[in-house]
Design a protein that fits this description.
The chain is of the alpha/beta class and 282 residues long. It is built from 13 helices and eleven strands. The longest helix is centred in the C-terminal third of the chain and has 20 residues.
Length: 282
């Protein structure tokens, strides 16, 4: 295989320095660029039109992932051969995998999401942990949701931990960011979407909702902050506040687990009522 570039890029290269700065939110926002690390994320970025701008790779990774390097080049990305220290300097992980991509922002305007009339949406309201945000995005993708909305009080979608936790799902479905929760609810209701707030103290039981057959229509789930859940004013916006039943002795479920249960419950109900979606396991 031909080398990715004739020689190793210098650690003092302006491109290396610019990529390193993308670990900081203010630089990401200014440049509208973010980092995608590892073979899975880079492959997904290369397959998402006009997203992957640059790729830094060690010689070993370039050989091991020759197909990804080829996909990156085909996507128009500039490929730089770099030593392990350069990759370590750019990467935000403890054990880099030899591939770090620089990608353009790809969030979707909320109005476009509404225009598509989605049937299943996850709304993250004041979710602050990037790992949780990325994992919920992955769960939404796996359950067949058509969109995710991050409210204006939630974590940065492009935080490296959120990108890693999404395991490529960030590139699969539309995500709107910075939407006030009231605007998100009003807009979704306007397209005929039923709003359910997930809360451990909810008056409605998820099992009962499924048994009554109330979950087959278009639905948006609101998931709240990891520590204190949803405030009363947000719960009041919902058509129903729903709790996931705890049948054993566990005190509660964490955010990502509860989101997975709720989203899959809706996906199953929607398939049963109209055969409108297919959820498969990769």
């Amino acid at each position: 295989m031909a080398p990715a570039t004739p020689e190793l890029i210098s650690p003092r290269s302006a491109r290396v320095l610019a990529a390193r700065r993308l670990a900081r939110r203010n630089f990401r926002g200014k440049e509208r660029l973010f980092l995608a690390e590892g073979p899975q994320a880079v492959r997904e970025a290369a397959g998402h039109a006009s997203t992957l701008v640059e790729l830094f790779t060690t010689p070993d990774a370039a050989e091991r992932y020759a197909d990804i390097i080829g996909e990156a080049r085909d996507a128009g990305a500039r490929v730089h051969l770099a030593d392990e220290q350069v990759i370590a300097d750019i990467s935000t992980t403890v054990t880099p995998q030899g591939l770090v991509g620089v990608c353009r922002f790809l969030d979707t305007p909320f109005e476009e999401i509404l225009a598509a009339r989605p049937r299943l949406v996850a709304v993250l309201a004041n979710v602050r942990d990037p790992g949780n945000a990325g994992t919920v995005l992955r769960c939404a993708d796996a359950a067949g949701a058509e969109a995710v909305v991050l409210t204006d009080a939630s974590v940065d979608l492009y935080n490296p931990k959120a990108v890693r936790a999404s395991v490529g799902s960030l590139f699969h479905l539309p995500v709107a960011v910075g939407v006030p929760v009231e605007q998100a609810v009003e807009g979704l209701k306007g397209t005929g979407v039923r709003i359910l707030a997930a809360d451990g103290a909810g008056a409605h039981d998820l099992d009962d909702e499924l048994d009554r057959g109330t979950m087959g229509g278009p639905t948006a789930w609101i998931f709240g902050n990891e520590a204190w859940g949803l405030p009363e004013e947000t719960r009041a916006l919902a058509d129903a506040v729903v709790r996931v039943p705890i049948h054993g002795k566990a005190e509660s479920l964490n955010l990502a687990t509860a989101a997975a249960v709720c989203l899959y419950a809706s996906a199953r109900a929607q398939r049963a009522s109209g055969g409108c979606r297919t959820v498969t396991e990769s």
